Amino acid sequence: MNRRSLLLLTLPLVIAGCSDAGNSTGQAGSTAEKPPSPVSIVIMKKQEQPITRVLPGRAVAFQTAEVRPQVAGMIKQVVFNEGNEVKAGDLLYKIEDSSYAASLAEANASLAKAEASVPNAQANVVRYEKLVNSGATQIEFDNAKVTLLQAKADVEQAKAALQSAQINLSYTEIRAPFDSVTDISKVDVGNIATANQTTALTTLRQLDPIYIDLTESSTNLLELRAAIAAGRLKGNPDQADMRLKLEDGTDYNKTGRLDMSELAVSETTGTYQIRAQFDNPDNLILPGMYVRATVTLGMESGYLLPQRAATRNARGELSAKFVTAENKVETRLFQNAQVSGNNWLVDTGINEGDKLIVDGFQWIADGAAVKPVEATVGEDGLVVEADAAKQPTQ
C-alpha cells in the first residue's frame, strides 16, 4: 500500500475524532451553572409613616328642607330660578294675600274697639269706688271692676288675633330658611296650595359645606383601638386628615374633617359610619355622588412594604420576598400590617437594612441565587433602578 492510499484511509478517522470532541465540548457547556437572576430590591429603613384607610363614601347635603306652604291660597308668583343658588331670606313663592290682608285689617279694627272700651270701664271703677256706701252698693263696685278686667282681656285677645293675622299674612311670602340651591318647582303660578300639604313645593339643599358619609368595618375599628391602646399610633383619630377622590378619579383639592361617627355597629353589615365635612364652595360635589376618602388616622413607626411587592397566601397572610446575606431568596410572613398610602406598614419580621424584592420575584423560588439591584418605588407604583435614576434624561 502506498502512502497516498494510507492517507485516504486515515482521514475519515481524524474527521470523526474532531466531531466527537465538538460534541463533548457542547455537553460540558450545557451543564454549566446559570448566572444569578437580577432582581430589584429596596433597602428597608424604619421610620414613622401615616396610617391610612381608604373608605367608600357618598355625598349628603349639609342641610335639606322640603318647602311647604303654611297657609292656603293660589300661587301668585314663583320668584326663584330652578337650580340656582338662593340666600337665606330670599323670596321663593308668593301666595295670593288679599284675604289675609283683609283679616289683618279686621284684627286691627277689633283691637281698636277693644282698647276704646277700657277708659270707660276704668272711669266707672273710680266713680263707684267713691260712691260705695253713699249711693252705690258694693255689688255695683265689684261689677265695675269685673267689667274693667273683661275690657282689658278683650284688648289682649284682640292683640293675639292681630298677631295671628300678621303671621298668616307673612306666610303668604315663602322665603328660603338658609343659603341653598333650589330644586325643580313642583307648582306653577295659578296652582292652589294648602297649608302643610303632603307634596313639597320645592326642595332646598345647602351644599357648602357638604357631608360625606363613609363606611368602615368593625374589624378595622378594633385594630385601630388596639393600636391606640398599645401606644403605637401617634395622633388623635378624631382630628384625622381626610382627602377625597371623585368618581372620575380626580383628587378633590379640599381637606375634610371628622364631624361625627356612630357609636353602634350595623347588625346586618358589620360596619359603622363616619361622617366627614368638606368645604364645597364651587358646588363640585353634589348629593348622591360616590367618592373614595383616604383618611389619615395618625402616625406609626415601621417598615413600608409596597403593595406591588407583597401578596397574600391561601390563608390570607401577608407575604413578601427578601434577599438574604448569601444573596438567596426567602419568603417572610407578616401577621399584622397597617395600610399606609399605597403600602403596607409592618413593625415585626424585618430588620434595618434588609433587602426587599420589589420586582422580578414572581418567577423565583425560595433558595434561588439572585443578583440584587437597588431601586426605588414611585408613588405611581413603578420601579426605578438606582443606576437608571442617575442617568440624565435624553
Automatic annotation (TrEMBL):
Source organism (scientific name): Endobacterium cereale
Stretches assigned to the Multidrug resistance protein MdtA-like C-terminal permuted SH3 domain: 304-362
Main localization of the protein described in the UniProt heading: other
PROSITE patterns xrefs: PROKAR_LIPOPROTEIN
Coiled-coil intervals: 104-168
Protein name (Swiss-Prot/TrEMBL): Efflux RND transporter periplasmic adaptor subunit
Single GO term (MF): efflux transmembrane transporter activity
Subcellular location: Cell envelope
Signal peptide per UniProt: 1-21
Keywords: Coiled coil, Signal
Domain Multidrug resistance protein MdtA-like alpha-helical hairpin: 104-172
Record-stated family: Belongs to the membrane fusion protein (MFP) (TC 8.A.1) family.
Record-annotated Multidrug resistance protein MdtA-like beta-barrel domain positions: 209-298
Pfam families attached to this UniProt entry: Beta-barrel_RND, BSH_RND, HH_MFP_RND, RND-MFP_C
Stretches assigned to the Multidrug resistance protein MdtA-like barrel-sandwich hybrid domain: 64-203
Record-linked PANTHER family: ACRA/E-RELATED COMPONENT OF DRUG EFFLUX TRANSPORTER, MULTIDRUG EFFLUX PUMP SUBUNIT ACRA-RELATED
